[in-house]
Specification:
Length: 83
């Protein structure tokens, strides 16, 4: 049911013109890359051993990256308008 929830979240977000902001805490991130591998939409990249939202406009707000991060270093926030 998780993928269905993600799909519904994206569909609702698209219809309402919502977008998401991906924030990485540089003090917590250890550059393990788990979030990069978890993101099915290619939003994240590792740059200088830290996760970075290279393509924030592709974020669906699915939270898979947040669940993958054992350091609690990544947050996905709802933002109004386009990134
Ligand atoms: S999973 Fe967490 S600690 Fe690992 S690269 Fe991503 S943000 Fe950094
Ligand atoms: S919330 Fe989902 S789509 Fe957005 S960066 Fe995280 S894993 Fe990728």
């Amino acid at each position: 049911m998780e993928s269905l929830n993600s799909c519904l979240t994206y569909e609702a977000g698209g219809a309402l013109g919502l977008s998401y902001r991906v924030v990485v805490d540089p003090d917590k991130c250890i550059g393990c890359g788990a979030c990069v591998r978890a993101c099915a939409y290619g939003v994240l990249e590792l740059i200088d051993d830290m996760a970075y939202a290279a393509r924030p406009g592709e974020c669906r707000g699915c939270m898979d990256c947040v669940r993958a991060c054992e350091q609690g270093a990544i947050e996905v926030l709802l933002a109004k308008g386009k990134p």
